[in-house]
Design a protein that fits this description.
49% of the residues are buried. Strand 2, helix 3 and strand 3 form a beta-alpha-beta unit. Helix 2 crosses helix 3 and helix 10 packs antiparallel against helix 12. The protein starts with a helix and ends in a 5-residue tail after the last helix. An eight-stranded parallel β-barrel has the order 1-2-3-4-5-6-7-8, surrounded by six helices. Helices cover 48% and strands 14% of the residues. The chain has one domain: Alpha-Beta Barrel (TIM Barrel). It is of the alpha/beta class and 301 residues long. It is built from twelve helices and eight strands.
Length: 301
């Protein structure tokens, strides 16, 4: 697909699959392919391999590229594949080249490891990643990588391969200002969580990213459809009844955003395995709470 076709294709919901591991914390690539094949049977508009939910920060460069390769193989062209890129300059460039060769359609670039660079250095970071490959970039604005509307406009001008902007700040007032300044030069994606979908669609994003897609894919699709259709009554009802109970548990401790999803998948018999350090597993009472949440979500699984 051309860049414009990709930008038009990514509308509704983007799924963020976990990366399953064996009990020894090795990659479970066969389990990954089974999960991806099932996930890609639903009406998602894109899929992100080795994003934050996919524990990018705990994978080696070689592992990350192989996860992308196996993800692309399992998707079989049914939707665009984003590939997560991060760390420092040489590692990010190596990942970008390897993931392009592995068949990724778009790179999702996370903030560099160094957390206090000057703006000019950040621009060069994104430029070098873009120059290293021939596929479009999506910039993931999260944590300290927060930009003003004017800075985003500069990035859009000076990084020609930048075509997607994924917000991970959750500040819809600021995102709306950025969107008004930059316009349709970038495709706007909401990325902090399923619970923020109403706010994201209210300011005009064309897609939001879903972690719940791992175990309740039909709910994610319904949320995306309601958002695109401007059906905010349904959108609020779905998130209030089905999403917030899970996020209440997920937000209880740092790192639970992955551990809760993996536990839900284990209880459903899907490949998941443990989380890698520095994340930690749930406590027994929380495991029981996941079971109750899955009962609530039964019609969407």
């Amino acid at each position: 697909m051309t860049v414009q076709e990709l930008k038009s294709r990514v509308r509704g919901v983007i799924s963020f699959p976990i990366t399953p591991f064996g009990d020894d914390l090795s990659l479970d690539l066969d389990g990954l392919e089974r999960n991806i094949d099932e996930m890609a049977s639903h009406a998602f508009s894109g899929l992100v391999a080795v994003g934050g939910v996919g524990e990018l920060y705990s994978l080696s460069v070689t592992e990350s590229i192989e996860v992308v390769r196996r993800t692309v193989r399992a998707v079989r062209g049914r939707m665009p594949v984003f590939a997560g890129v991060g760390y420092g300059y040489p590692l990010a460039v190596e990942m970008a080249r390897g993931m392009e060769q592995a068949g990724a359609d778009i790179l999702l670039v996370l903030p560099p490891y160094y957390s206090n660079p000057p703006m000019e250095g950040l621009i060069r970071y994104y430029q070098e990643i873009g120059n290293a490959c021939g596929i479009p970039l999506g910039l993931y604005s999260r944590e300290w990588a927060s930009f003003t509307a004017e800075e985003v406009a500069v990035l859009a001008e000076r990084v020609p391969s930048l075509h997607f902007w994924k917000d991970g700040q959750g500040d819809t007032r600021k995102l709306h200002r950025i969107m008004q300044v930059v316009g349709d030069r970038l495709a706007w994606l909401g990325g902090i969580g399923d619970d923020c979908a109403p706010g994201y669609f209210a300011v005009g994003v064309q897609a939001y990213s879903s972690g719940i897609a791992n175990f309740a894919p039909r709910l994610s699709v319904a949320i995306g459809e309601a958002g695109l259709n401007g059906d905010f009554a349904r959108l609020r009802a779905l998130t209030a009844k089905y999403v917030l109970p899970f996020y209440k548990l997920r937000d209880r401790a740092r790192g639970h955003e992955v551990a809760t999803m993996k536990e839900a998948m284990r209880q459903l018999g899907k490949p998941a395995g443990p989380v890698r350090p520095p994340l930690t597993e749930l406590q027994p009472p929380e495991v029981e709470e996941i079971r109750l949440v899955l009962e609530l979500l039964r019609e969407w699984i």
